[in-house]
Amino acid sequence: MNDAGERALAHVRELFPAASPSGVPPASITVSFHPDRLLGDGSTVAGRLAAEGVYRSQFETGISNGGLTAFSGGARDVWEQRMFPGVYTGAQGRPVYGGLNLAGYPDGASPRFGSCHLVLDPAVSARATFSLGDSFTEPTVVGTAATFAAIWASLLDEVSRTGSALNLRAGSPAAWVRALTAPRPAAGRALDDYVEAQIHGGLTLGEDVTAVVADPCFRGTPTEAHLRGLGVALRWAPGFVLPADEFPVDEKGRFVAPLIDAVASRYGHDLIDAALLGRATHEPATWAGFGSPAEVLQILKYAWHVLVVRGVAVIN
Fold first, then answer.
1. Residues 8-38 pLDDT 10s
2. Mean per-residue pLDDT for 281-300?
3. Residue pair 16/143 in contact by the 8 Å Cβ criterion
4. Residue percentage of the chain with pLDDT more than 70
5. How far is CA 39 from the centre of its chain?
6. Are 84 and 93 within 8 A, CB to CB?
7. CA proximity to 155, closest of 183, 143, 128
């Protein structure tokens, strides 16, 4: 753990000192990513992970499955300064983001950020901070592995008010807690409903990762070879597929459905999956009629969100 990470943890612990008797419930942090997205040098995310053995933050990679705001004065920099005042500067040593998979979902705690995810060793939780909600929402309920009670109480309150938390429905908080421990073969599809984890002190595959879980659409592809090259166990999660003509015209913006129709036509595949969306991201200029390359990548990101929510979950 570096000095910046220690200071970040100390700051969060001080925000809820009364929560100290209650530790984080048993669960793994998952870090979601799209393995076939291209980096600036033309390599893929999975290829770079296999070559380096290190998972890097957006400040270093320059790509994201969320917003591209990781630069000095950018939105992500502002969020980190608010959450960890005076701790992080420059591009190096920034936190890595994931989700605490309390419900044990096979598609990970926060699938909106990728079709595959790393499962972290439980020991990593000791150097993570947590927030109820994504950093961009400016969450006020935060904690650490040792001071998790405020987050836990807020989750139970959410169940009392709405009948659901972490995209898991239950009739009462007690029933919800019991449901957390039940086997979870189906995808959780927790697009916007997760406990975010901010991992401090870096993330090394050989030391911090116990498995990589992948969408089965990558079976038999170069991406699978790269994922196997990470040096950790490879497992397959439910993958999401949806016919092109079933993408709604009024969800995630008016360009998603037309762009998906164009993708299906160009590649001759009516059934859309993560690999086909990834293929489309490799040539954004092809879709210039839908906007600039950055705008096209944003539309394809939204198409992935539609897949998570509406797609048929399959294992093959």
1. 556 455 545 544 345 667 799 999 999 999 9
2. 94
3. yes
4. 87
5. 18
6. no
7. 143
What Cα–Cα distance (Å) separates residue 35 from each residue in 150, 164, 251, 273, 275?
34, 31, 25, 13, 9
CB 47 within 8 A of CB 58: no
Residues 6+ apart with CB under 8 A from 290: 255, 258, 259, 262, 296, 299
Q: For the chain, which residues make up each domain, given as ranges?
A: 3-236, 239-314
With the CA atoms of 149, 142, 122 and 46 taken in that order, what torsion angle do they form, in degrees rounded to the nearest 10?
160
Longest dimension (CA), the chain: 58
pLDDT tens digits, 101-111: 999 999 999 99
CA 314 → CA 107, 186, 187, 251, distances in Å?
11, 10, 9, 23
Residue 159 has a pLDDT of: 93
pTM of the model: 0.89
Nearest CA to 241 out of 269, 280, 274, 279 is that of 274
CB 242 within 8 A of CB 54: no
pLDDT over 80 (residue 138): yes
- Please tell me the distance from the alpha carbon of residue 30 to that of residue 12, in angstroms, as a whole number: 21
Which of these, 280, 36, 18, lies nearest to 153 by C-alpha position?
Answer: 18
Residues 50-63 have a mean pLDDT of 82
